[in-house]
Design goal:
By secondary structure, the protein is α/β, with parallel strands linked by helices. It has one domain: D-tyrosyl-tRNA(Tyr) deacylase (D-tyrosyl-trna(Tyr) Deacylase, Chain: A, 3-Layer(bba) Sandwich). Strands 1, 2, 3, 6, 7 and 8 form a six-stranded mixed β-sheet that branches. A two-stranded antiparallel ribbon has the order 4-5. The protein is globular and about 50 Å long.
C-alpha cells in the first residue's frame, strides 16, 4: 500500500463540480492519496494507518516537526489513486499491472478509512473509482511517500 501524504491547511475533492469531501479550512490536515498494490492485505492497512496517525509531521511550538496527527487533532482527506502503482520504464504509456483489482482495492480502501476513524480522527473521502478533482493548500510544503512494500 502506498500513500502520498501532504500536510495541508485546506483541501477538498470534487466530482462533477460538486464537493464530496473536504477538510476544515485553516486547520491542520492531511491529504492522503492512497494506492492499493495487488498483493496488499488488511495487515498493510493496519500498519499504514497506525504509522500515519503516529507520524510526527506537524510543527511544535519551536517549529520542529514533532507532533503527530493525533496530537494536533488533524483531519484527513483520503482519495483513492490506483496510478500510484503505475510502472513507467517501458514504453510510453504507464502500466497498471501492480495495482490491485478494483473490487479488492475498494474493500482495503474502505478498511483504511475505517481504521483511521478508529483513532478518533475526522476523515473525509472522495468517491472510489470516480473522476475527481482535488484542491489543496500544501502547508510547508510538506509531502511524504509511505509504502508498506519498502523499509
Amino acid at each position: 500500500m502506498k500513500a502520498v501524504i501532504q500536510r495541508t491547511t485546506q483541501a477538498s475533492v470534487s466530482v462533477d463540480g460538486k464537493i464530496v469531501g473536504q477538510l476544515t479550512q485553516n486547520a491542520p490536515g492531511l491529504l492522503i492519496l492512497l494506492g492499493v498494490h495487488k498483493e496488499d492485505s488488511r495487515s498493510d492497512v493496519e500498519y499504514l494507518a497506525k504509522k500515519i496517525i503516529e507520524f510526527r509531521i506537524f510543527n511544535d511550538e519551536q517549529g520542529k516537526m514533532n507532533k503527530s496527527t493525533k496530537e494536533v487533532n488533524a483531519e484527513i482527506l483520503v482519495v483513492s489513486q490506483f496510478t500510484l502503482y503505475a510502472t513507467w520504464r517501458q514504453g510510453r504509456r504507464p502500466g497498471l499491472s501492480l495495482a490491485g483489482k478494483p473490487e479488492e482495492s475498494r474493500v482495503l480502501y474502505e478498511y483504511f478509512v475505517d481504521s483511521l476513524k478508529e483513532y478518533g480522527i475526522k476523515v473525509a473521502t472522495g468517491i472510489f473509482g470516480a473522476d475527481m478533482q482535488i484542491s489543496l493548500i500544501n502547508d510547508g510544503p510538506v509531502t511524504f511517500v509511505l509504502d508498506t512494500r519498502e523499509n
